[in-house]
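ok new one. same drill as before - structure tokens go in, u give me an amino acid for every spot. 365 of them this time. try not to just spam alanines like last time pls lmao
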């Protein structure tokens, strides 16, 4: 079954508006886990498919192991033996011919840039004083001259976190992005992540003040979530849900697209709504319970502080960030229990399910 896309008109208009202008900023697309960031970018790519001027380079770092600088390049490029290219460059400048080659082979949507191995050898041998970013800059310049608009999208940016030399790579990568946007205005750059602490880290480290902007892709608000339920139930179940059923779903999973989708799929499999929701909640409660147990075993003092912090959410879904001491809030954000919105300065549970689990578990506290 092909997933149908729902709503997000405001975010889509904003991003299409940005793409229509000259590149001038790096954009961080952020929001809680499973809020629909990737799905939104896929929809954007889909809407651009008939517009011949865009060349989109989309890299999803999910599920790839990045332990070195060169792993990152392996993701950006697909290196292939290419005999035609060999013929082309017999006597000519490999780099110049390479640019022509990439222009020719760049499609609307590329997972990675295809590089003939002869060209890769030249680019990757830094001794020749030519590094990958400088080469790509030349490629993008040439594309611009021809009226093409390259777009780079990096999904799951936080995967760069595990890298030993990540500081270095992040500096190089974002210097490159600043050059492509603020300085040369030749390429749109978008980075997606649900890890707002990492986005903040990148922002500070790469000195992006005044050079980057943020677009929030949040879970749906209540009104939109109920409409999303109608949209999915008609499409997947072939029937409408009652108002009571929708309210019940919302009370358990809120407006998180992935959770709402999961509920509807389980309904299709013939399960009872109440059982589905109770099961999902139980799972979340168990996760949180074991997390708290581990913390308690390790450090009782920290455990007490965490319980105090989580207690604030018994009465509120969203609070001001500084209501929880920095080390505790960062710990809970890292553990994906809370979502920090560094722009608004707010904190909330990663999902309604997590919120409900907090309320259930801390009932006696
Ligand atoms: N606009 C939408 N229309 C239809 N379904 C959606 C939409 N947004 C999200 N979904 C559903 O929610 C799921 C999770 O969305 P997605 O993977 O895009 O989230 P994400 O924010 O990129 O996640 P992560 O936090 O892992 O980066 C999708 O697989 C899809 O089922």
């Amino acid at each position: 079954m092909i997933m149908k896309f729902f709503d997000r008109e405001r975010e889509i208009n904003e991003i299409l508006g940005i793409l229509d202008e000259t590149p001038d900023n790096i954009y961080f697309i952020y929001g809680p886990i499973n809020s629909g960031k990737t799905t939104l970018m896929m929809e954007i790519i889909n809407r651009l498919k008939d517009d011949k001027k865009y060349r989109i380079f989309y890299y999803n770092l999910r599920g790839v192991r990045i332990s070195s600088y060169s792993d990152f390049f392996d993701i950006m490029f697909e290196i292939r033996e290419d005999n035609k290219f060999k013929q082309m460059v017999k006597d000519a400048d490999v780099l110049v011919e390479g640019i022509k080659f990439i222009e020719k082979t760049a499609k609307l949507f590329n997972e990675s840039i295809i590089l003939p191995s002869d060209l890769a050898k030249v680019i990757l041998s830094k001794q020749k004083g030519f590094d990958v970013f400088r080469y790509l800059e030349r490629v993008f310049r040439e594309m611009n001259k021809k009226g093409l608009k390259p777009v780079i999208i990096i999904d799951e940016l936080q995967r760069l976190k595990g890298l030993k030399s990540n500081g270095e790579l992040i500096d190089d990568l974002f210097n490159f992005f600043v050059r492509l946007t603020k300085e040369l205005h030749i390429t749109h750059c978008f980075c997606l992540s649900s890890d707002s602490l990492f986005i903040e880290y990148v922002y500070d480290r790469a000195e992006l003040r005044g050079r980057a902007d943020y677009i929030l892709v949040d879970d749906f608000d209540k009104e939109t979530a109920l409409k999303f339920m109608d949209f999915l139930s008609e499409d997947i179940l072939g029937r409408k849900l009652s108002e009571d059923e929708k309210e019940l779903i919302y009370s358990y999973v809120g407006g998180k697209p992935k959770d709402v989708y999961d509920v509807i799929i389980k309904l299709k499999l013939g399960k009872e709504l109440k059982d589905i929701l109770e099961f999902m909640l139980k799972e979340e409660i168990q996760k949180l319970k074991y997390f708290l147990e581990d913390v308690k075993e390790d450090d009782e003092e920290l455990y007490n502080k965490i319980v105090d912090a989580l207690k604030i959410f018994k009465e509120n879904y969203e609070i001001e960030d500084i209501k929880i001491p920095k080390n505790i809030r960062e710990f809970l954000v890292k553990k994906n229990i809370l979502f920090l919105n560094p722009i608004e300065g707010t904190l909330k549970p990663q999902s309604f399910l997590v919120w409900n689990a907090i309320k259930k578990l801390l009932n006696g506290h």
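The longest strand covers residues 54-60. and btw The mean pLDDT is 88.
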